[in-house]
Design goal:
CATH class of the largest domain: Alpha Beta
CATH superfamily of the largest domain: Alanine racemase
Number of helices: 11
Structural class: alpha/beta
Number of domains: 2
Radius of gyration: 24 Å
CATH topology of the largest domain: TIM Barrel
Shape: elongated
CATH architecture of the largest domain: Alpha-Beta Barrel
Mean pLDDT: 96
Low-confidence stretches: none
Strand content: 15-25%
Number of strands: 18
Distance between the termini: 23 Å
Length: 360
């Protein structure tokens, strides 16, 4: 049985993913790389991303929680899976049983993992998290607990690494350089893995003593620092189609609330995508644009759940069925995020499941 093509779809460029991963390795100076694939690989499809990167041998895959770790292990049983966020106590037994790698922020967590691992007759691999400014978790460096943790020894616990997180590497260079210095002064090379850098960190800052980087956003072709965008290749192109072309007269209202009134006889295109697909309604106020047949055209009126309306009066060519690019190589996701008064991370992860992912 033949099915109709999708109204909205996201093309995932696997070669772009590979290019960006290799760039992360190069810019880090050849350090080990943890590919951050949480939130369904930033909306790109975790299975797609893992299968595209596996032969490039990421040292770890970073996920947000046990549910994501479970899904990833089903796709790639041999993966070393690192839980980026704090685990809760109800997850400890599964972490130990399945061999996931967790980070710990206090001695209570560390001790509980040791007790449960001994009871299960297994070894659990952990990393010590250090709070150097994020405030979200980790041992405070000046605390006695931190000293206790880095000297902790238990036959069922392997403390394999130590890490912290950059809260402002794309916004505050002075703070971040100080943070790097502080973290480097804390870590010992007796830890197999020593990590701090996210995408902005590895693109813009260098370290001689750290040896693992955690690229997330840049893997998907978006740089948190505009100066480095030209080095990356966008991995997602969000597309739809023109559903209807029609004309409306001068003085005609457009979309809910009639916030836009035409100032001339206007030719419009209705596009089959809306905020239920991930095109944020908040963009409506900032003159967002789409690309049709190589030409930019403005979205007018409020973005609705399933459709947007575009002014094509001045376009030379536009007809029903034409492909529309919402973002990709021509309109960067960072531009879309700015129009929505948000960040690229939210745009990527907000692309709805009903938007079909198509591998290119």
């Amino acid at each position: 049985m033949e099915f109709s093509p999708p109204r909205a779809w996201a093309e995932i460029d696997l070669s772009a993913l590979r290019h960006n991963f290799l760039l992360a390795r190069e810019k880090s100076g050849g350090q080990d790389v943890m590919a951050v694939v949480k939130a369904n690989a930033y909306g790109h499809g975790v299975k797609n991303v893992v299968q595209a990167l596996e032969d490039l041998k990421p040292t770890f895959y970073g996920v947000a929680n046990v549910a994501e770790a479970r899904e990833l292990k089903a796709i790639l049983p041999s993966a070393k899976i690192y839980l980026l966020g704090a685990a809760n106590q109800l997850e400890y037994r599964e972490i130990i049983r399945e061999g996931f790698i967790a980070c710990v922020s206090n001695m209570e967590e560390l001790t509980e993992f040791a007790i449960l691992a001994k009871s299960a007759r297994k070894k659990v691999v952990l990393h010590i998290a250090v709070d150097t400014g994020m405030g979200r978790g980790g041992f405070l460096p000046e605390s006695s607990e931190f000293q206790e943790a880095i000297s902790f020894s238990h036959s069922n616990v392997e403390i394999e690494g130590i890490g912290s997180h950059c809260p402002a590497s794309d916004e505050d260079e002075t703070f971040t350089r100080r943070q790097y210095q502080e973290f480097e002064s804390l870590v010992s090379k007796r830890f197999k893995y020593r990590h701090l850098a996210n995408s902005a960190g590895l693109l813009h800052y260098k370290s001689e003593s750290l040896n693992l980087v955690r690229p997330g956003l840049m893997l998907y072709g978006c740089s948190p620092l505009p100066d480095y965008q030209s080095l990356l290749k966008p991995a997602m192109k969000l597309c739809s189609r023109v559903s209807l072309v029609r004309g409306v007269p001068k003085g005609h209202g457009i979309s809910y609330g009639r916030t836009y009134i035409t100032t001339r006889d206007t030719k419009i295109a209705i596009i089959g995508i809306g905020y239920a697909d991930g095109i944020l309604r908040s963009m409506s106020k900032r003159n967002p644009q789409v690309l049709i047949n190589g030409q930019r055209a403005s979205i007018i009126g409020r973005i609705t759940m399933d459709q947007i309306i575009v002014d094509i009066t001045d376009m030379t060519d536009c007809k029903t069925g034409d492909e529309v690019e919402l973002f990709g190589s021509n309109i960067l996701v960072s531009e879309v995020a700015h129009q929505a008064d948000t960040i690229p991370w939210e745009i990527f992860t907000g692309i709805a499941p009903r938007v079909e992912r198509v591998l290119v």
